[in-house]
Amino acid sequence: MTDRRWSHNPKPIKLGAMDKSRLEAVVKPYLAASPKLRQTVHRFEIKAGRIYLYRLHEQFGWNNPEVQFIKPLIDGKYVEFPMARITLFDVRGEKCEAAFQRHTGQWASLYEGDITGCLYFIEENDQWFQ
Description:
By secondary structure, the chain is α+β, with helices and mostly antiparallel strands. It contains 3 helices and 5 strands. It has one domain. The model has no long low-confidence stretch (mean pLDDT 84).
């Protein structure tokens, strides 16, 4: 039996080096100006038409030398996880989609708008991005 559920998965726009630098010039000052995002976002990267925001999580048992971790630890006790993803559908950043990563690894879309609207949504609705 085939799975007949409908799925919405549009493709992001392809970005050139100039487009990436223009988007970085929008995202970096916004993250620096926001007190909430400045504390939670460890780093961000722009790749494959998407902006990924990463945060650090302290691992349980990090001080036990016999514990094996799947990912390498940062500063000896933190692991980096994707916090949010902004998918870009045009080069200027006017059509974007903010999503969070579920425990299954799938991304769930929460907001559609422009790039600053997506960043504002991520900042104000931090219960989704923990």
